[in-house]
Design goal:
Elements (H helix, E strand, L loop, with lengths): L1 H32 L5 H35 L2 H13 L3 H22 L4 H11 L3 H15 L4 H6 L6 H13 L2 H57 L1
């Protein structure tokens, strides 16, 4: 994911430089030449003036919005809503889901293999997911286990866990080999996670290239259109 982040950073820096420094210089040159500028050029100059005159205000508003969002997400209700939204996003939701399941299975399997009793192990594995939706589901499953139910049966009632996971855990419980079964579940979902991440990156990279390329192309064309127009008039 480092490449998309670098692409966004350098792309944003290039666009900001053009709007803050290159476009104003050309705008003054075009105004001295006189005549009516093409619509894309007028739009670009308007955006450039808006960024230069109100850029700091815009940054301040964004900072306030991010601060408020950060505070809301750190409340119990806000965190639950945020984690639920992440799970429902296309492609990214699959990545988050696979990550949570693999963490849960890896942590719980390791603890059980080390001799930790299932209820304390479930409490630790619940926190390892890093997702409140999964944590709530695991907490409810742990309550069922406390009352005498099997873990596989309890997880089957929560859609966050695919039926195959609940089935494998149920088989592990029946065979008395739950710890090793959970580690096999973790390995399977870690492979799924790697595949999901590759798909996500393969989609994000070309999309970012198209978006950033379109923005830069529009800026360049808007800056060159008046030159082409003047050349046509001279000829």
């Amino acid at each position: 994911m480092a490449y998309p982040i670098l692409l966004c950073t350098f792309g944003a820096a290039a666009v900001t430089f053009l709007l803050m420094f290159a476009v104003p210089v050309l705008a003054r040159t075009f105004q001295e030449m006189g005549g009516t500028l093409p619509l894309p050029t007028r739009m670009l100059i308007g955006v450039s003036e808006g960024v230069r005159e109100h850029g700091l205000i815009g940054l301040a508003v964004l900072a306030v919005v991010f601060f408020v969002a950060y505070r809301l997400v750190n409340t119990d209700a806000g965190r639950l809503w945020y984690d639920r939204v992440r799970l429902r996003l296309p492609i990214l939701g699959r990545v988050v889901s696979r990550l949570c399941i693999s963490r849960f299975a890896r942590t719980l399997g390791t603890l059980l293999d080390s001799g930790v009793r299932i209820l304390p192990a479930l409490s630790i594995a619940r926190d390892s997911t890093g997702n409140r939706v999964f944590a709530v589901a695991i907490e409810k499953a742990a309550e069922g286990v406390r009352q005498g139910s099997r873990l596989g049966d309890e997880l089957r009632a929560h859609r966050e866990f695919p039926p195959t996971v609940a089935d494998m855990i149920a088989v592990g419980e029946e065979s008395g080999n739950l710890g090793k079964t959970l580690l096999r579940v973790a390995e399977r979902f870690e492979r799924d996670l790697d595949n999901a991440v590759r798909v996500l990156v393969s989609l994000v990279e070309p999309l970012l290239l198209i978006v950033m390329g379109s923005i830069v192309l529009f800026i360049v064309l808007a800056m060159l259109l008046p030159v082409f127009t003047m050349n046509a008039l001279v000829q």
